[in-house]
Amino acid sequence: xxxxxxxxxxxxxxxxxxxxxxxxxxxxRLPPGPTNLPVIGALPFIGSNPHSGLAxxxxxxxxxxxxxxxxxxxxxxxxTPSAARAFLKTLDAQFANRPNVVSxxxxxxxxxxxxxxxxxxxxxxxRKMASLHLLGAKAMAxxxxxxxxEMGRVLKEMYDAAAxxxxxxxxxxxxxxxxxxxxxxTLSKRIFDAQGEESNMYKHMIVELLTGTGLFNIGxxxxxxxxxxxxxxxxxxxxxxxxxxxxxxKMLEDHSTTAKQREGRPDFIDLIMSNRVGEDGDTVTxxxxxxxxxxxxxxxxxxxxxxxxWALTEMIKKPEVLKLAQAEIDKVIGRERRLExxxxxxxxYLQAVVKEAMRLHPSTPLMPKNTRLLVNIWAIGRDPDTWTxxxxxxxxxxxxxxxxxxxxxxxxxxxxxxxxxxxxxxGKLAGMIFVQYFLGTLVHSFDWRLxxxxxxxxNETFGLTMPKSIPLxxxxxxxxxxxxxx
Length: 486
Hints:
Organism: Rhynchospora pubera
Structural class: alpha+beta
Shape: globular
Protein name: Flavonoid 3',5'-hydroxylase
Strand content: 5-15%
Binding site for heme: 425
Helix content: 40-55%
GO molecular function, one term: monooxygenase activity
């Protein structure tokens, strides 16, 4: 018996060695990528702007699909439309979950919001409610008067600024306008006045939040060091979360006391409260509701304002594009009234300008899927094998030729500003309406030039979103009949 045991152990050991050798011999080769340093991997090679650093490495290694270590985590980075299609369409089910990163724990209520929650019945229920009552075509059409009213307030403010020869800080005005729209739709409440101290605090909080969550936090890639919070990311985001949570809690408390005022015209929160149990028994909790409001106020304000600001910046940089857009709108509706959302389908050049801004300046440069897959949307939009003159702002590319059929709603992987697959942004329709309507109104209603002493700056700040490093400050000169600004 002793001999049998010894021989069995020896045979098992030899089999183990053989299988290890066989696995090494026949294992699949990993995609190309940089040599990884001990513990920290390739993190030093990426730089302070990971979207451009990863694009540079992909070019260096001729790797549309690249593998590298970020700390102790293996990461696959895709940088071309065909590679993105393979992961987001063919392999979509395997990459349907968001990464559970340490830095996002607090701000997402421990992943209880829609953006970061795992794919499953609860996520499907939240997305269904958001699409049905807030972000779908029918819901968006129902809230069109709110968008028109808030855009009218913006026009009046800019018209007054022009009369006083004051410059307009474009992103501040847009964020306040969008926050007021989201506030009315979700909670029946205008949130901010455009020039108020509270609105500036909100804008700064949003910027801190979205840049902080997009940072390559060392603790996310080297979990053993997470507790040290070496970059201060977690402490900063926790502080922002506490302030944001206090604001949302106060809004919900106020909302609960005004139910009678909304009879016959329920808002998003009213509809969720009355339909919070799904068919399979899953329930949208109070924490989920806070997470949903958080999603709407972050993704619903800063991302749309970023694209609009970048588009207007590019048009100031290339005045011929601004003039062509204005000429198209003037031809369709004249100068006696303001642009309406119903005019947008008749404005193909304006739509092309928006697509081109989304190509060159996606509001979300890196789209994380599963634990460690990054889709470099920024690199895809600048892929020289896909786009002629990829670094040039040329809206005409979307009016004829191969790009004319491309839409940005996840059907064409050459242009995926909202992502693609089953985790595509639920607010893609809202984002398109906001950007096209806001940009078209600003372009039609005013001539634009830089404020005196301002220099056109095209630098970007990396984060979960990618705003301009220096906000656009410009002078707006009215070009419509005075009655259009009332």
